[in-house]
Amino acid sequence: MSVTTEKNVKRTPFKGDHVGSFLRPERLKAARIQQAEGEITEEELRQVEDEEIVKLVEKQKEAGLKAVTDGDFRRSWWHFDFLEGLDGVEGYEPEKGLKFKGVETKARGIKITGQVGFSDHEMVEHFRFLKSIAGDAVAKLTIPSPNMLLFRADRSEGIYDDDEELVNDLVVAYRGFINKIYEEGCRYLQFDDTSWATFFSEEGRASMKKKGQNPEEVAELCARAINESIANRPDDLLITMHICRGNFRSTFMTSGSYEAVSETIFGGLDVDGLFLEFDDERSGGFEPLRHMNRQDLSIVLGLITSKYGELEDPERVKARILEASDYVPLSQLCLSPQCGFASTEEGNEITEEQQWKKIDHVVRIAEEVWQEG
């Protein structure tokens, strides 16, 4: 690794950063349909993916981003595609999709059919390609948190008797993947996690209790799944986590402040940075940040929404960053969109032009606030 790259990695998450996913180009969408209908081969689809990812990486670098992703261009879902690649996990088509506010996704789910583990994964190759074209930018990989298997998998086949047993195997699987991806040169890994949002609302906590679960105990288990999965990571591998309330076609799944589990999130997780949604009233105020007790934890404020194209008033964004600095030193704060632009292949209801204006907005405001060039 070059000296320049090493310095960049140590600074992640960057002052102007992003969550990871981007709108799929029409050419890529068309190629996926053609492959599904047997009109082109998987190899031909891969070629289109490669070419579009090369273009995407160059656009990210031209926009001034210091970390680049492949935009999830090889995925249909931000979480299922990765989780299906673990041993003992299979995809299937349930009766219904996931429910968002006013809309439902296509039917897709995952189920546990055997002991969960890691032996190999296609996303290792995906990252290898990204790293090969990243140049002097940092290649960032995003994967779902281990908690997403806990919250999303159908366990009706009875492979695991309890959550603790499943978490034990999940930890081993994630450690295996992390070790492998580190060997491939990954120094910036991000967990994406919607499970925490279940704790934010009374409705979410009530649904746990209805299932016979204790929300406090579940939160402790979620924290353990993350902390133990990353416990043995190398010192130069930075791991962040994006906490999301749902993102599908510009809609959301849940609302609520971080307050209910703020002590766990801001004082009990061993990640290096937290990407947090603060783009509207659904996320509450900055007060929960008072529980942050670490000088080495970065808080990435998601003040720029990815759900609609209108640009936020830059002065208002700067004012909100200063508000957050009442709880967290300005030096530990960063800025990003509140979520990705396409958590699923359908994407949010914005245009590619609006997407890049949002990215430019983040980079320029960050440069002015933290005086970074």
From TrEMBL:
Enzyme Commission number(s): 2.1.1.14
Enzyme class of the recorded protein, top EC level: transferase
A matching Pfam family: Meth_synt_2
Source organism, top-level taxon: Bacteria
The UniProt record lists the keyword Methyltransferase: yes
Annotated Cobalamin-independent methionine synthase MetE C-terminal/archaeal domain residues: 19-346
InterPro entries for the chain: Met_Synth_C/arc, UROD/MetE-like_sf
Biological process per Gene Ontology, one example term: methionine biosynthetic process
SUPFAM superfamilies registered for this protein in UniProt: UROD/MetE-like
Keyword Hydrolase: no
Keyword terms, alphabetized: Methyltransferase, Transferase
GO MF terms, alphabetically ordered: 5-methyltetrahydropteroyltriglutamate-homocysteine S-methyltransferase activity; zinc ion binding
Protein name, per record: 5-methyltetrahydropteroyltriglutamate--homocysteine S-methyltransferase
